[in-house]
Model the fold of this input.
Amino acid sequence: MECKVESLSCALVNPPYDNAPNRDGAGQRLEALFLQHTYRWLKPGGVLILVIPVPQLALCGNLLSVQFKDIQVYRLSEPECVQYKQVVVFAVRRTRREREGLQEREISGLRLGYGSKSRNFDALPVLTNQPQRIYAVPEANPIELVHRGLPLDEIEDLLFQSPAYRQARRILFAPEARAKGRPLTPLHQGHVALLATSGLLDGNLGEGELRHLARWQAVKTVLRLEEEDENGVTTIREKEQFSHALNLVYADGRTSVLTNDPPLEETDEKTPATNTSGQAVPPETCSGIRRKFRLEEARDEERA
Done:
């Protein structure tokens, strides 16, 4: 997304709280990257409203010290904001003359101040409903945001008209098996298990509070065994095996997963497993040996 430089009079920036992808692993923080990309859109005298986690204030402070003035930092008091230690930064874009007139001592002092604030979340003032300072937003002309990337929506619409996609679709997306009819004899437990694991019993099942959507899927696991001979040489053997997992979504919003792995807290450490050579296998290497269904309650993942 691109915008004309120095065209905005006010910008509310709430970037993702994560690291940018990099070939060598985690890259730069996205908070600082978003600020570097968007601050140029503000015209001199424009107001910046930046919402970030307080630990990233020191990193963003390197740019804020030079490009902005009249900066105020407040901590947010809502429970969701406290969980991520969010702060809001109000600032005014400096003019070129103001930036050129800055002394290195002033910039260093401002950066040290941001570093100190990033380590003292509880000492920051709380943002309340009562205005503590008024920022004048300058007048701005109509703006235009331009997307320079691929038109993903248009590509998705035209994809079904592609001959290459139609040929590859049969391989990439195999049609689901559908079977209808009434069995001649009552089904036994083994019959039901085969139908369930093959996906023929997926759908809307149950009544009342137990009403749920069921979806079976195949899961590949790797069984890792270590063998140590009399010379102390350790041989690692890996064996691929397939099991099934049942995904459930209940009417009240709960989600559960039935898997084939035993819970770690129920692993019996008193009787370690042994391999074919009679050597004891460490508990962490035999997680795929014991089999027991477990019910995992899905939890909301925290925002990184």
Summary: The chain is about 25% helix and 30% strand.
